């Protein structure tokens, strides 16, 4: 059994989080006819990360819990950054996490409707075409403590506005030349209410609407209306949108359409991780990682390739809960969650990562035995397997010391250890090359200890894993450390960037590991999970299939060594 450093709150009835409290209140009051309808609204401008997973689990979780619905809506209002590659990846990732959406929608589905509503707002004197540049507009907006200066274009007639807006749509003006703005409240202390932008000109092909449009709605104008069109009841988003809420409500009220309720929660921040898509994209583009699915990335596809399971990520989302205030979650909690899940599921195997040869001098040459090994002590139904034993084996170089310190209980000259599932062996001598490196350990075995059982009650202080040399498979193992060397990689001194915090030793490739024959054929089973006994959890990298050889990624160690190291530091 592994150490559980995070106590289970067993026996406690799970209390409601604050969003569930709001929802249960709404159901009790018959709001929206008791209906619950959420949505997950990614912008298809990058791959999803573990922060999005939190939002996915929350939105889909609520949909399920209250027998409601959850939509997937792509917030595709900025053609400059978006792409169908991202749309496909997002769909895959959500399915992989174990969720399915009721409706799949795109903000771009609503471009016609949004345009009509904008025209309606112009007709009602609630919107105008502005010629101020972005910089000018922000100067006019001023500071929260003093009312804004109205744009000189604010009082254009309805006819002029209708004409200009129509011509914006037709493509008569270059990018940035004009915008459509709502007539908000110029004295509001909330800057978002000071004549918010509704449309901007972007002459760029859109991945779905092609060249139909060259004006695109702003987030604030598109998001709430999209929610409303879909009949969303609870529009759950992250805290930075709290200051946008009055505007969200204002557009809905001005248009007199169905009013979803926006509820904000704290976004997930993880130590040793950056989460902004812009930064993740930079890591990919500048080749600091091998791609969006590099096992060191906090993306869902990266975690998947690393060997994380959907269950482990859902467990993580459950453990972190839903908070109203920003905080940073220690990445070791995520690692704890995957260990917890894989401990129950992973097939155990023996793999020697840094091999040294052992010859059992008193074992008959040419003899091969098949010994019984347990597939998973946590799950009897996974059964047993046979492991081949012979005169020549590999063990971990670190499991032997020629001149051991007092507390070293593994193999050393004259000491006896147990080979897991096999025999007790004693080291008798050491062979070295001309440079003094150990090449072979000579040992004797006790035939009476077959199965690893003590023949006469004598004890050995340790059990080590091994692989029979003639039967061993050559495998590559990729071992990862944190991608960033500092707990808050976004925090940087003047003149530095988050890239300066990259950990130069985050990837280690071990090309010559030795694995037991059981693993033969698994190169065709990408992402299959294993526990390498004593070493940690590993999974088959998808490169294995392409290259027709076994390549493993280390998912996580058996214990939280990092916490110990950083405690000492
Ligand atoms: P980023 O800042 O990483 O680019 P984003 O907020 O722009 O993320 P979107 O695609 O707009 O990314 O996000 C889709 C949904 O996921 C939004 O509702 C957003 O609030 C939520 N989300 C994004 N990042 C996190 C996070 N770190 N924790 C929780 N929810 C998040
Ligand atoms: Mg966004």
Description:
With 569 residues, the chain is an alpha/beta fold. It is 27% helix and 23% strand. It is built from 14 helices and 27 strands. The strands form 7 sheets. Strands 12-25-26-27-23-24-13 form a 7-stranded mixed sheet, covered by helices on one side. It has a 7-stranded mixed sheet with strand order 21-18-19-20-14-17-22, with no helix packed on it. A 4-stranded antiparallel sheet has the order 4-5-6-7. Strand 18 and strand 19 form a beta hairpin. Helix 2 (50-65) crosses helix 11, helix 7 (219-229) packs across helix 8 (245-255) and helix 11 (310-320) crosses helix 12 (331-345). The longest helix has 16 residues, at 50-65. The two termini are 28 Å apart. Bound molecules: adenosine-5'-triphosphate and magnesium ion. Residues 41-43, 51-52, 54-55, 75, 237-238, 267-268, 275-277 line the site of adenosine-5'-triphosphate.
Based on CA atoms alone, the radius of gyration comes out at 31 Å
Q: For the report, how would you describe the main beta sheet?
A: 7 strands, mixed
Total count of helical runs of at least 4 residues: 14
Shape: elongated
Strands ordered across the widest β-sheet: 12-25-26-27-23-24-13
Which kinds of small molecule does this entry bind, naming each only once? Answer: adenosine-5'-triphosphate, magnesium ion
Q: In total, how many beta strands?
A: 27
Tell me the span between the first and last alpha carbons: 28 Å
């Amino acid at each position: 059994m592994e150490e559980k450093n995070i106590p289970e709150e067993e026996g406690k009835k799970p209390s409601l989080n604050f969003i569930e409290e709001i929802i249960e209140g709404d159901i009790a009051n018959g709001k929206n006819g008791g209906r619950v309808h959420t949505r997950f609204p990614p912008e298809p401008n990058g791959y999803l990360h573990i922060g999005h997973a939190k939002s996915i689990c929350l939105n889909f979780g609520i949909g399920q819990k209250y027998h409601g619905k959850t939509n997937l809506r792509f917030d595709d209002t900025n053609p400059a950054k978006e792409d169908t590659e991202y749309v496909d990846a997002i769909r895959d990732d959500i399915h992989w996490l174990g969720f399915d959406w009721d409706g799949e929608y795109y903000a771009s589905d609503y471009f016609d409707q949004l345009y009509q509503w904008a025209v309606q707002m112009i007709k009602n004197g609630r919107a105008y075409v502005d010629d101020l540049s972005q910089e000018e507009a922000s100067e006019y907006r001023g500071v929260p403590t003093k009312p804004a200066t109205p744009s000189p274009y604010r009082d254009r007639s309805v006819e002029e506005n209708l004409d200009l807006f129509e011509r914006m749509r037709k493509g008569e003006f270059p990018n940035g030349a004009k915008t459509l703005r709502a007539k908000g409240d110029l004295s509001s202390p909330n800057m978002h209410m000071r004549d918010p932008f509704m449309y901007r000109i972007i002459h760029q092909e859109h991945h779905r609407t092609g060249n139909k449009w060259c004006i695109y709605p702003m987030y604030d104008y598109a998001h709430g209306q999209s929610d409303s069109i879909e009949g969303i009841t609870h529009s759950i988003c992250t805290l930075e949108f709290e200051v946008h809420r009055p505007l969200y409500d204002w557009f809905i009220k001005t248009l007199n359409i169905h009013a979803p309720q926006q509820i904000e929660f704290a976004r997930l921040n993880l130590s040793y991780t950056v989460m902004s898509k812009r930064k993740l994209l930079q890591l990919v583009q500048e080749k600091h990682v091998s791609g969006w699915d590099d096992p060191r990335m906090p993306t869902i596809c990266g975690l998947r390739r690393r060997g994380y399971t959907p269950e482990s990520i859902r467990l993580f989302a459950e453990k972190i809960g839903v908070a109203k205030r920003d905080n940073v979650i220690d990445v070791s909690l995520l690692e704890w969650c995957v260990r917890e899940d894989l401990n129950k599921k992973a097939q155990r195997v023996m793999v020697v990562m840094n091999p040294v040869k052992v010859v059992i001098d008193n074992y008959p040459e040419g003899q091969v035995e098949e010994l019984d090994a347990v597939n998973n002590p946590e799950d009897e139904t996974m059964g047993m397997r046979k492991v081949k034993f012979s005169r020549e084996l590999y063990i971990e170089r670190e499991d032997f010391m020629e001149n051991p310190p007092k507390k070293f209980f593994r193999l050393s000259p004259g000491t006896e250890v147990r080979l897991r599932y096999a025999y007790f062996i004693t080291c008798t001598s050491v062979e070295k090359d001309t440079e003094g490196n150990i090449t072979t350990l000579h040992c004797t075995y006790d035939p009476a200890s077959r199965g690893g059982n003590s023949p006469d009650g004598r004890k050995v202080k340790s059990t080590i894993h091994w692989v029979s040399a003639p039967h061993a498979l050559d495998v590559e193992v990729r071992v990862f450390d944190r991608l960033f060397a500092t707990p808050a990689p976004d925090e940087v001194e003047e003149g530095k960037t988050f890239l300066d915090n990259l950990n130069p030793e985050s990837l280690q490739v071990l090309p010559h590991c030795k694995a037991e024959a059981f693993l033969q054929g698994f190169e065709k089973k990408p992402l299959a999970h294993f526990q390498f006994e004593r070493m940690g959890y590993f999974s088959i990298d998808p490169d294995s299939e392409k290259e027709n050889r076994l390549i493993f990624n280390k998912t996580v160690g058996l214990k939280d060594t990092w916490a110990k190291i950083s405690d000492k530091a």
